[in-house]
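input
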Amino acid sequence: MAVARKQGANLAKISGTVQNDVLKEYIARGTYIYPVRPAMRIVTDISLGAARTSPSEYYFDFRLSHPRSGSTAVQEVAFTLADGIAYVQAALDAGLRVDEFAPQLSFFFNAHNDLLEEIAKYRAARRLWAHIMAERFGAKDPRSLMLRFHAQTAGSSLTAQQPENNIVRVAIQALAAALGGCQSLHTNSLDEALALPTEDSALIALRTQQILAHETGVTNTVDPVAGSYAIESLTNEIESLAGLYISKIDKMGGTLRAIESGFIQGEIRKRLMTSSVRSKQKNRSSWRE
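output
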């Protein structure tokens, strides 16, 4: 915005997305400077300033994609939406009306290998968010109920061994995101488990998106997998379980309190430890064979 002012641009016409979700840093990455509440205030103040001057910009971007390497699909949905609830409440507390800013919210999810579960995850998140915005926050504008999301394929699923196989993994993950209704997509490159992508591998990642978008027909139908017994069952299950997590976080006093107490981090850590034990058991079994 400062650069736009310097160049004489019209701030009201600026569009884009600011990846400004600081809460995920306390949950997953650890790249933060201040305690969670002052950091939250800084992010909220900046975002509200953008809301008042650049109405076309997506100024809240909720993303729990970083801990997805250790969390479940249910946890990714629950903690991302709980994250969103905290920011929406902060905006309301600052004096904004929900329909004044809710259409400019965006989300960021990962896309992993379990094709059906990932599709259901996105569908469950969209449905749950619509209920949250309408029932909890009283949103009336249909645009306020929409969960617009970017998806990135799972870097943690890529292997340094036989990296060519990562092309297949990325294609399946990207297909799940497309079938789940993503608005934008990032496909990882086949060699990202080894180093920064080469130009050739980055081009293959780009072509993967273009083939999906223009040669498969998956983007021609809204919610093309609706009605599948497996998809609908998984969607209901993920929505229900994520809702239970959100209710538990509410009872604790909200997302900030859940982070301060270490609850969210602990839930992801427990899952990581369980996965590590299972992996070791599997490896021992394969060694015996």
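quick obs: The beta strands are 16-17, 57-58, 60-63, 105-111, 149-153, 184-186.
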